[in-house]
Fold this sequence. Notes:
six-stranded mixed sheet, homodimer, disordered C terminus, alpha/beta
Amino acid sequence: MARSLVVAVAQLGPIQKSEPRALAVGRMIGLLERAHARGAGFVVFPELALTTFFPRHYHADRAEADVWFEQTMPSAETAPLFARARQLGMGFHLGYAELARAPDAAGQMRTRHFNTAILVGPEGDVFLKYRKVHLPGHAEFDPRRAVQHLEKRYFEVGDLGFPVIRAPLPGLDGVNLGMMICNDRRWPEAWRVLGLQSVELVALGYNTPSLNQEAGGFEAPHLRVFHSHLSIQAGCYQNACFAAAAAKAGVEDGCELFGHSIIVNPQGEIIAQASSWGDEVITADCDLDLCRLGRSTIFAFDRHRRPEAYGRITGQTGATDPPVWRRPGGDGGSSEK
Amino acid sequence: MARSLVVAVAQLGPIQKSEPRALAVGRMIGLLERAHARGAGFVVFPELALTTFFPRHYHADRAEADVWFEQTMPSAETAPLFARARQLGMGFHLGYAELARAPDAAGQMRTRHFNTAILVGPEGDVFLKYRKVHLPGHAEFDPRRAVQHLEKRYFEVGDLGFPVIRAPLPGLDGVNLGMMICNDRRWPEAWRVLGLQSVELVALGYNTPSLNQEAGGFEAPHLRVFHSHLSIQAGCYQNACFAAAAAKAGVEDGCELFGHSIIVNPQGEIIAQASSWGDEVITADCDLDLCRLGRSTIFAFDRHRRPEAYGRITGQTGATDPPVWRRPGGDGGSSEK
């Protein structure tokens, strides 16, 4: 019997800086209902889905940015989304900025800031929380950028690893669920850590500008969507899983986000894709047993992986220079100019 | 100044079981000359380029298969290729089956078998040797397969890791060169280990059947080329490097190999592609400085990688089951049916 689940991605159009959370939540409830009408049992909302993508705005005083963070979840503003999802018997994935009182690495209670996502079950349980590990951008104001990308300023690196949990979704006793947030999707390490926990469905939200400010004009804008899709498709194929990737799209605070939300199957094929720059629901009927083919054959990790050759992946952070070839016993290769 | 190198991929059409090495070498010299006429300074030949893809043939007595292996390199049969390349001042990459007298892990001299490739410089020096790490297939005769894939029978797992070396190629004082063989390209770990050594150009040969015998009819044949390209494109993008991937193509011993050799740039774009099922040269003018963009921005590993979250990649070989969600303090999630 097929382990079938209709998965929805709820792409959000722009949320301007002045728009209150209640407005975004209202739009999300509308998308939830549209997904339900299309048979979906699970909906993925984007990264930082409740507000504008605030890391583009510089606050000299970091504490000022706390206005963009949630101190509880559900909060007063998001409670209607939780209630409606439960009423409809649907699970969902939600990204938000998390302000937590939590112990740090030394065990001391502190106020901490994370770029966070949660998976919520059809009965309202929080199955899993994930805090973004791969924070892009920079920590200080960068005068060379027309638009800032201050994720390294406002967030700490996530401290929960890349967890996977087996939990029930409508019609299914257990689905192996994992999460990523935005830039994580470009890192094959993140996919592999999920794959090594037998993930079947990766929920993934993103806010990605159409222009790479960091690239100094070298990166052709038309490659931006390609790179996003390439990374997700390779991650799904190489780990034999589905992914549901939800974007914020359109012009937000004058900055264009590229949208193109997708659902990808374990063969790496795009099986649904958003085509608007606004609020949009896409759905796909996902047979989770399709994950078995890859992981029992070409990607049967236990038979084929060779961790003894992978030491650098965990043994070093940055890239090193390779040795320079020298002719054995001779005067060697040319020296560097 | 651009660090420019015209790179060629020399795709080989089929080599039937009965064809002698001298015939293959003659074809390779012809391809080398065609690449030279197109301005190339470096040519990539496929995996196991001297013979038919012999792991499809079962020898009950493994020693019988030694006939497919090279005991020296250059050998008498390959010496003309080395000589012609040196005459033309060209570097090349060659894949072959290596029979070596070499120490094993315990330090004892043994006769060993590897699926090997070498990088040869324009003056005939062997810059680098690589022995295939990710051996696909199986070790014993599999009666369910119409065609065998006995790489795990005939080869040991490579013992040289994924080395990178900086060595001179025509017009360039130093290029950071690495290698992969066939199935390695599907493993993001292999790409990352090369990327962590600042690889700029990955030479890669393959022999890949158009039908996945292992998939029991579930994998659509049209996805085979897609998966190969997807993996190479993602590997190049995520590690900001070029790859030159050379196939054997066409019907060999009754088994179709899918060809579609490509050259890929650090943006993950295919910049040259073979379209025949036979001997064919493709070329691309590669500015190796294009590797800088990715590795100084979005893939600046030292700023963005988080090895503390990657422990599973080296800490375990196979996939584990995730924990099953239980409602805190309650009777928990549903049990498995």
